[in-house]
Amino acid sequence: MTTAPRIGVLAVQGDVREHLRALEAAGADATTVRRPAELEQVDGLVVPGGESTTMDKLVRAFDLHEPLRARIAAGMPAYGSCAGMIMLADRIADGRADQQTLGGLDITVRRNAFGRQVDSFEEDLHIHAIGGAPLRAVFIRAPWVEECGPGVEVLATVEEGPAAGRVVAVRQGRLLATSFHPEVTGDHRFHELFVQMVRDARAEDSRSGQ
Ligand code: GLN
């Protein structure tokens, strides 16, 4: 049996504990990442929900910005939920003027896209990539994906109401992102999908001798 993949959760701000729990439940060896040396030890990384402007500032203050960009560019699998989706996006709409992202995903995300009246809501989404029953998606001041590059696979869209059709989950190569928070529902299928992406990446890299 192969060992469980070691997956970090970026732990400068946001709902770190919920992701650690969900990753463990999905079969990973989960750990926090606050320092470049800790980043080097992980096979994949989750960027949690929280506040992307704060996370961006802290990532830079902790000297993690460049190491994170470099590892993502070198093919480390990463999954971002909500603020984490914003951090992984190449482009932001309605970001703060000085806000930077780690990038990697060829998407434009719109921050706080669902507006003030519908700050938070829940909806059942049918997501082919995770199969089975619909997934309860919890949106909290969530972004949506406004524009996707050609290499981006849309995994889920809003199904009801005025935002119907808006893209809320995407995958591109080894990067995965959701506007919603699967870490808070106890349904671990998204984390299982990510753990499998990390296992596949590890197998692929060891075959190619990396
Ligand atoms: N609105 C937050 C942001 O812009 C994201 C909210 C969340 O992660 N729940 O970063």
Summary, kept brief:
By secondary structure, the protein is of the alpha/beta class. The protein contains 6 helices and 12 strands.
Structure keywords:
single chain, about 210 residues, alpha/beta, Rossmann fold, 7-stranded mixed β-sheet, 3-stranded mixed β-sheet, about 30% strand, globular, binds glutamine
Please tell me about this protein's structure.
By secondary structure, this protein is α/β, with parallel strands linked by helices. The chain has one domain: Class I glutamine amidotransferase (GATase) domain (Rossmann fold), CATH 3.40.50. The chain contains six helices and twelve strands. The strands form three sheets. A seven-stranded mixed beta sheet has the order 2-1-3-4-12-11-10. A hairpin with a 2-residue loop joins strand 11 and strand 12. The chain is globular, with a radius of gyration of 16 Å. The two termini are 21 Å apart. 45% of the residues are buried. Residues 49-52, 82-83, 86, 111-112, 140-141 line the site of glutamine.
